[in-house]
Amino acid sequence: MPSHSSNPKKIKPLTAQHVKLRCLRCGRKATMSYAIHAAIQKLGGAGALGCCFGNNGVLCGGQMVKYGPLIKRSRTLALLPTYAWARERALRQRRSAAMAAEAAIDPDDIDENDGNDDPDFVLSRDFDISMRLTPEDMEAPRIVPAALTIGGPTTLTGISTGLVSTGNADLAERLKSTKTNSPAQKSAWRHALDVGAPNAGRYQVGRLAHYEWCHLQGVCLGGKTNAANLVCGHFAVNTYMAVIESVLSGSGTQRRIRVTAWCDKQYVADWLRYEVFDLTMNNILPQARADIWIDGRITKFSQNDRTRVADELARAGLG
After folding, report:
1. N or C: which end of the chain has fewer CB within 10 A?
2. Kindly report the CA angle at 125 between 303 and 202, in degrees rounded to 5?
3. Which DSSP symbol is given to 226?
4. How many CB atoms neighbour CB 214 within 10 A?
């Protein structure tokens, strides 16, 4: 009888060698053909290869570097995803997240002419803030004018909640239209264009770059949807405020807050001040646990910014 060898077949080497890549930021790994990697390094330099991975639609933003020996066997190559496949997957997730982020946008901000206005849409109470984050970090903020920090004459108009206690969200307030209840009686992006607000633009699906009506006291903290509690702010500004509100709401501890918008254009926040205080007896106001100034001209707010703000609040004993 013919004999059969018990030795497994040898794995054939690849005709083209591949490099292993690792992100210096997230640590995830991928592969790329040696020839393509060499060409990228030659054209763009050592730091030219950005990370191909993402999370919740937000690209990592780290740098991929070569590590270890070249891959010469197909079995080894199959253990890791290719750079091209991982990047395409991350970009698909990013596009999906951008579309899902529409669920975090007030339907009154949607352009009536783009075919996406849904009058029956109800804002989710449990939307994921990560849907609103941009891949790019927030721009360096301007210096807060001394007239606002220490007092003095200013041309800016102040709109404030006054000192209010946080409370539970009222679903009825969530369902109210910000457009019809706003002081301008129109969509925020349209009002921003009408008054010439900085970085104003028409609403476009997935751009996350338009103006919105921002609740000074967030609905999740017991705020109302009315003209006295709404200011016009950039999408990034509203995201910044949502992160603060999420931390305070998630803490389960009642606080006092005072949120003040300083407006250059009518109803448009050029600066926002968010102060958080403990509840005290006899209405004695203690020193603020958090005193955060938000530049109304920012247009980006990333996962890094979210982490930074959450950490700042945690150090203040909040959250």
Report:
1. N
2. 65
3. S
4. 28
